[in-house]
Q: What sequence folds into this?
């Protein structure tokens, strides 16, 4: 799968309250959650996102609360992937479980806001088309690839049970 | 090669194939395993997604109605129509699935104070909760970790959980604790030293002579904030203090100890003698300063409560400081006991009266203001000193408000002066 989109750059330790504030956790609708994505720290963010865009951030992306609303809000506003040097533990699980692609890239800070990236998930390759650079990230471990390939945790469990 | 307490619990809950594996170690940091869970927890924010996913799966019955716990606590008593709908989703599902451990507001509490109090989580258990502060229960010597709603939905189906075995960091605390200094200060100090990702995807094992003397409430506060350093779990070896706490419960528990030759990624040792009460400044829990460095900071509101510090000993120390005193004119003091049992104790012991006479309000249990839900939202320009666990931008309301985090004694003393104040102030 190839993801191509424009970069929205964020700093380190972006927490799940930043991604979607608690006052909006009164719905399970991804689009509604998405309409408030990053509101506290970047009020114009949602307006600037086109479907397929990519977030590039600093270390420890998604720290804080366990709210799965965070990766769902990112999906809901059109974000297709997140690239960062590291991800917080629960966000990591949630992103896998709900099928939001993410890549761990130590050099994420080299990528600029507004750059156009092309990401090939199967190989973990990230191309910065604007700057003509290419990066290789670690592909997911086999166990996680299997969950992603089945379309998320719930499908994986269902298939496992029907075997 | 030996095993840590966390590894032993994970191994005991893994498949027989894992335990029967030949080779050096049966469980290794970095490998993916599946484990059986003893308890799966959800609340009014996270469970509605889980219940939706469970229903979408087409499966009709949960794997074990006695191992699922649902607590409406974040926006309960329902703060508005839409949170009322979410709470009702939990109530309806619990009735339908005959889930015994559903706690309506009259018998509820903040989940992470409630579950240990009710003996629902015990030493040796493997617990998942769709709430990041599920790591609190590690204080009892169980492996307890925060997960997402889909993880919870999956657990509803087959009682299982996938994880990458975390590496571990051992923290040893030596020396003598000053008066007014407790578990909250130790964990704030620790996060201040290692940062909000200092234990990213690790287990934090808290140990040493200081921890051995720490009461259960302080241990809960410490493990509660392990997530604030990025940890998957915080854990403390169960001992005589744990035994005393759990002896009243019928269900059998298992006390695991770490082996002497257990392997840790690193071991960090501190002498905490002379440590002052600690305060985390806006906007990260790692932005920690000693209380005396912040005496110029004026505050508009004080919140004493939450899954971090809303327990009996927290309210008791706050009441001792506030007894016979008045809070600073114009300041808002909000005290929230973490469970109905603690609420009742506060009434019986006269702490509730102390808070009200001092000029504060005394609420029914709720997470409320901690996450900017209700019961004390901050507006632009306001500053709050809270005994809660997070001080991110906009955490308690306006993105232009400020939250400082402290222990309950510092919070109570500061409510009297209107500035961040060392609790020693009460002796002056």
A:
């Amino acid at each position: 799968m190839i993801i191509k989109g424009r970069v929205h750059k964020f700093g380190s330790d972006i927490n799940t309250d930043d991604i979607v504030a608690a006052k909006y956790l009164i719905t399970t609708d991804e689009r509604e959650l998405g309409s408030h994505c990053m509101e506290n720290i970047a009020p114009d963010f949602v307006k600037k996102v086109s479907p397929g865009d990519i977030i590039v951030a600093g270390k420890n992306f998604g720290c804080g609360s366990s709210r799965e609303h965070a990766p769902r809000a990112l999906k809901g506003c059109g974000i297709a992937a997140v690239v960062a040097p590291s991800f917080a533990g629960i966000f990591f699980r949630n992103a896998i479980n709900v099928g939001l692609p993410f890549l761990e890239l130590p050099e994420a800070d080299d990528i600029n806001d507004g750059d156009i990236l092309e990401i090939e998930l199967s190989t973990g390759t990230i191309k910065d088309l604007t700057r003509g650079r290419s990066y290789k990230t670690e592909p997911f471990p086999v166990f996680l690839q299997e969950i992603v390939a089945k379309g998320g945790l719930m499908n994986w469990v269902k298939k496992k049970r029907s075997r | 090669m030996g095993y840590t307490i966390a590894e032993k619990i994970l191994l005991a809950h893994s498949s027989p194939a894992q335990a029967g594996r030949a080779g050096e170690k049966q469980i290794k940091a970095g490998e993916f395993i599946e484990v059986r869970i003893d308890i799966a927890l959800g609340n009014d924010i996270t469970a509605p997604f889980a219940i939706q996913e469970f229903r979408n799966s087409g499966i009709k019955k949960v794997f074990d109605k006695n191992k699922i716990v649902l607590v409406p606590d974040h926006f309960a008593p329902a703060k508005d129509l839409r949170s009322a709908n979410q709470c009702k989703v939990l109530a309806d599902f619990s009735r339908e699935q005959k889930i015994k451990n559903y706690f309506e507001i009259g018998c509820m509490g903040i989940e992470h104070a409630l579950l240990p109090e009710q003996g629902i989580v015990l030493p040796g258990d493997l617990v998942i909760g769709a709430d990041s502060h599920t790591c609190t229960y590690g204080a009892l010597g169980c492996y307890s970790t925060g997960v997402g709603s889909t993880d919870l939905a999956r657990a509803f189906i087959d009682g299982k959980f996938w994880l990458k075995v975390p590496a571990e960091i051992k923290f040893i605390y030596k020396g003598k604790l000053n008066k007014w200094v407790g578990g909250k200060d130790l964990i704030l100090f620790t996060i201040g030293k290692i940062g909000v990702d200092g234990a990213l995807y690790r287990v934090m094992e808290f140990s040493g002579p200081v921890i051995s003397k720490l009461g259960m409430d302080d241990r809960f506060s410490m493990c509660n904030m392990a997530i604030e350093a990025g940890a998957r779990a915080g854990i403390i070896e169960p001992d005589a203090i744990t035994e005393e706490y759990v002896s009243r419960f019928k269900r059998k528990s298992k006390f695991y100890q770490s082996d002497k030759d257990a392997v840790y990624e690193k071991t960090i040792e501190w002498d905490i003698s002379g440590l002052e009460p600690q305060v985390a400044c806006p906007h990260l829990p790692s932005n920690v300063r000693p209380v005396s460095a912040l005496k110029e900071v004026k505050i508009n509101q004080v919140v004493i409560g939450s899954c971090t510090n809303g327990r009996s000993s927290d309210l008791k120390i706050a009441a001792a400081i506030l007894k016979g005193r008045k809070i600073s004119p114009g300041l808002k003091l909000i005290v929230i006991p973490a469970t109905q049992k603690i609420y009742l104790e506060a009434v019986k012991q006269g702490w509730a009266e102390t808070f009200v006479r001092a000029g504060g309000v005394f609420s029914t249990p709720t997470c409320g203001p901690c996450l900017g839900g209700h019961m004390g939202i901050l507006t632009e320009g306001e500053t709050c000193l809270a005994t809660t666990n997070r001080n991110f931008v906009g955490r308690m309301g306006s993105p232009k408000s400020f939250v400082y985090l402290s222990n309950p004694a510092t919070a109570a003393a500061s409510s009297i002066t209107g500035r961040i104040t060392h609790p020693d102030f009460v002796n002056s």
Q: What stands out?
A: The longest helix of chain B spans residues 81-97.
